[in-house]
User: What shape does this take?
Amino acid sequence: MQRWVSAILLSALSFAVTANEPLPVDIIQDLNGLQSQLANQPSGAADPAVLNRIIGHARTQSQRLASGNRADQWASALYHQLAASALVRQGEHIAAADELASARQRPSVPNSQVRRWLRDEAALRRAAGERRAAIALYEQWLGELAGNRNEQYDETAWQLVRMLAEEERWDAALEWLAPLLEKGGLSADQQALTNVVLRQAGDGEQALSWLLEGLNANSDPDEWRQAAALAQQAGQFGVAAAVWEAAWQLGKVSSSEERRTLIELHLAGGTPARAAEHVAAAIEAGQLPSNEETLRLLANAWQQAKHVEHALQAWQALSELTQSADDWRQYGQLAYGWGREEQAESALTKAASLGDQQAEQWLSYF
Assistant: This one.
């Protein structure tokens, strides 16, 4: 809030001097005097009497000059601005926003200043809880700057997306969000907001395609992560796995946790053989321990891939490690289903010796 006050205060004198229409000396002196009085009020402890006097005088002057020539109209706008500054100090955000709305309507006000007041008014209405009015003002401001995007534009667009999401206007939020995704480099908060909007709007494919088109060997690791996350959010696990795999091959991701994510994406995306290959490579590289959890992951991956030799080898290694009747039985059942009767009988016999009654029933087939 204090930032808005400072911005309003700092612009008054400079625009009084550089306005399209020159102002009389007495008006400039009066504006400067009001500005100085307001600036000298301590933050958070302004004198109500001083603020009321500034507001009253500024409103009187703005009304008196409103029907005058172009210079008077410009001066009227500046008095509205000063009244808004004082009202902000009093916490009267709606009244301050109304003053800025009146200032914007005065002729001879430069377009750059109109846009500045437009954005300030939107922020004030947002702070006052007038969310729909703020949304309309932000949309107007962004629309006027569509051909001149800058950092302030993107910051405001993200604010608008969040407000639209709060109003559950998902399609409108997605419309403003999509161009922002083209730039990449999302923060954690922006990524979280993006995920919510895409999930609720149900249309993440187009946004994802924009991100994918921008990915290359020079892209930051976060851009690769964000593309994979968006693919997951859209339910395109195969695409997510492909993106993460490319990032891995390019060295954009390389930690053991990131390799585990890659494995899980391959399993979810329908490429279990590649997942199994990564598990085996991670074990060999020491990124994953050769323990029960890892060996079970390997066995299940090769089983999903229907790779007979690798799957049976993995299940045998797991069973020998755990000495679990359930694992020996599952290994035996899998071998039996793939026509490896000798392996099946050996595994089921081991399971039965460990007290598994189902294994004993299976042995009756031999």
Observations:
- The CA atoms of residues 264 and 275 lie 7 Å apart.
- DSSP finds 20 helices and no strands in the chain.
- The mean pLDDT is 88.
- The first helix runs from residue 2 to 18.
